[in-house]
Amino acid sequence: MKAVQDLSETEARAELERLAKDIASANLAYHRDDAPEISDADYDALRQRNLAIEARFPAMKLEDSPTDAVGAAPGDAFTKTRHAVRMLSLENAFEEEEIEDFAGRIRKFLGHSGELLFTAEPKIDGLSLSLRYEDGQLVQAATRGDGKTGENVTANARTITDIPERIEGAPAVLEVRGEVYMTHAAFEALNERQAQTGGKTFANPRNAAAGSLRQLDPAITASRPLRFFAYAWGEQSAPLAPTQMGSIEALAAMGFSTNPLTVLCDGVSAMVAHYRQIEQGRATLGYDIDGVVYKVNDLALQRRLGFRAATPRWAIAHKFPAQLAWTRLLGIDVQVGRTGALSPVARLQPVTVGGVVVRNATLHNEDYITGRDSRGEQIRGGKDIRIGDWVQVYRAGDVIPKVADVDLAQRPADAEPYRFPDRCPECGSEALRIEGDAVRRCTGGLICPAQAVERLKHFVSRNAFDIEGLGAKQVEAFYKDGWIAQPSDIFELKARYGEGMKQVKNREGWGEKSADKLFAAIDAKRRIELNRLIFALGIRHVGETSAQLLAVHYQGWAQFEAAMTASRLGEGAEWQELTAIDGVGAVLAASLVSTFDNPAERAAIDTLVAHLDVQDVVRRAPVESPVAGKIVVFTGTLEKMSRAEAKNRAEALGAKVSGSVSAKTDLVVAGPGAGTKAKQAEALGVRMIDEDAWIALIGDA
Question: Measuring CA to CA, which residue among 639, 627, 634 is closest to residue 674?
Fold first, then answer.
């Protein structure tokens, strides 16, 4: 695979799109369905590559980026419950250098040069659970779900002996969080009983624990030996202690099982030493772990560090190395994505890698199959990949598998080099590879069924219109029968197929009630938030985060539509305004402008919006501060606070932070090393101050 630092912008865009799709699929399989399709190592490798590409090309970050996603949406078997405090995931690291970088980033963010203690604890490979206690009594247990909403599994959680019904010495409200798991011995005994009775056997202890906790009959859960380790908390009416370690000790005093391998470390060397010690004894623990978690011990510092979109800045998971296995390559399928990218997928003879049965693996692109990178340089020693080969499957960090190597000694005599298609396998249109691009793309556009279906799936996805009853399978069926071809058709379903011979209720699997529920769900989504609509359009490079940035900036559809219509690539006031939005780069802006300038795309958008009541963004209550409502630009080096802290502080005071200087800029805060932006501010007559003046300006506001 091509190194991230060697990727061109075109290659990076293609990679991010592929990674987003692969990671989303893996999240659903692992978190919601308890049926992982790839190993934890492969999943972590995908996320690491996604993060690395986003770090190098921040303007290309998709709004449905896996970076901002946590878990997967809860299933329908249990009632849903909203977490008072989000349950987030963790940033992953695999090398000691990454842990040093983690500690360095924290010191830099805080401007901290003194003692900095961390806790280090085993990362349990189980199912995350949040337990809510009120006045010491257990009142609710919920799975993580997508981090915001989980499944209510209270009755089942009550059957786990490690979870106390009542605790003493707790604040009035306390959410205890931890991991439900199953020991190796219990797992083997359970699978043996299941096999004897003809029941379902499980691939690994994590799946067994998740499946057991999600039983509709609590008696079945009670019959299975589940355990629980407590290691964190959510909402609490009063703190347990001023430190992470003190809080863990408080949980232990209340009767919770906490991991005895949790220790306090005074720096990176001690953290890594504990990691090595746990890694060496991993096989003797009796339960599965996949790494060690480090957390800043001082909770006041944790609060200062805060959170990214989906992970805390004050914690990281140091994962164990990847696992490998060999199996037979049975075939190569080429899938067509929403943007027309042709992605090869290896179909494998099923093999267990790190406890997960792997049947599919990514082959990245046509260059990877031939044993070279996009520059023609050899990878895997120049060995190509052929159908029938004996291949090594790699799981980086324990989700989406990769084919890492080929054993030429076991290559069948009749195996032929694989010829990557130059025609779309879905619509037959020419598949072109633009110079510098790592992928081929179908040129069929809207006539390509694969692209059309993937766009429709994206449109109804959870972070877009999220229409209940209209998921991926329904979209595929309706498209196949010619009922929907573009998003606007969804809002015409009732008018077209609500009555007459072709009624929705007459379809297989549908009835009058389910059809009525679908129509009601569609009607409910005619009123839609601006950010959701922008994201749902499926414009390349526009993810959930950038859609939110655009919505907040333009406030309403009319303003957004007018700005996109008037914008011209690389020139004009509208283009300057668009690219000045912090987090919106030239690549994303060009994608937006090109889409609205495309007659077919524009017609589809206009037809859709005619069916909708697009809600303006509700402005936050005005903040009284000297910079409220001002557009502020930071440039140069800040010495008394990090750039991230300065930006967060400015936004909290009601300012808009921009990434570029324009005539609309109100204030430029310039530190040492300020260059082009300072010159632009001077030329435009924009007020410029240094960091000390900025701190004096905002004062205690």
Answer: 634
